[in-house]
Amino acid sequence: MKTIYNTLLFSLLATSSIVSANANLQSKDLRIFTSIEVTKPELEPVQNGFSFKQNYSPKLSLGLAKEFQLDENWQLVSSVSISYLNTNIERFSFDDGTKSASYDELGLWGAVKLKRNNLYPNISPFIELGAGLIEADYHLNQTIKKETVAGLKATTGVEFTLTKGSTISVGLGFSNFDDFNIAN
């Protein structure tokens, strides 16, 4: 497991090093960021006959980012973050009806964001690609399923500059880590 985490961190550092190796780029200092994302986990059962109802829940992230100015209009942001999600899920089956379960996610993510600075005043569209490791933890009565899986995510959206050093982003995205299957 440490090998995968080290590879992910090395890949991000390598990306940052490659980008900063170009003498024409201007790098800004490393910054700490927090984010709140509204998401809904998609769970796949191992056996047929189960279905899940999940609600949208907040996912909190804390991370480090480094920005690289590619030219006057384009910026690349490389980041590493830790995310956490906790939600309740309803499981339906023909055999035992509806049961409530809890689901936790702890993730280590690396991402690269390309954004077009100030396409309109204080508005910057972006696209972000990320890879990570997610430790998923599912509890239903005596059933406990805990597994670490790899994941990918892609997001596109718009970033609004509120004040110097403060932004808010709105976007749509896709994440995939479907190696996590729930046994009954």
Average pLDDT rating: 78
- Helix-strand string: HEEEEEEEEEEE
CATH secondary-structure class: Mainly Beta
Gyration radius over CA? 19 Å
CATH topology: Porin
Fraction of helical residues: 10-25%
The number of helices is 1
Major sheet summary line: 9 strands, antiparallel
Description:
The protein has one helix and eleven strands; from the N terminus they run H-E-E-E-E-E-E-E-E-E-E-E. It has 184 residues and is mostly beta strands. The N terminus is likely disordered.
Chart the SSEs and their pairings.
Elements (H helix, E strand, L loop, with lengths): L1 H20 L4 E2 L3 E9 L4 E2 L4 E5 L2 E13 L4 E20 L3 E20 L6 E18 L2 E21 L2 E11 L4 E2 L2
Parallel strand pairs: 3-11
Antiparallel strand pairs: 1-5, 2-5, 4-6, 5-6, 6-7, 7-8, 8-9, 9-10
Give a quick summary of the entry.
The chain is mainly beta and 184 residues long. It has one helix at 2-21; strands at residues 26-27, 31-39, 44-45, 50-54, 57-69, 74-93, 97-116, 123-140, 143-163, 166-176, 181-182. It has one domain (2-182): Porin.
Q: Which labels suit this protein?
A:
Porin; disordered N terminus; 184 residues; mainly beta; nine-stranded antiparallel β-sheet; two-stranded parallel sheet
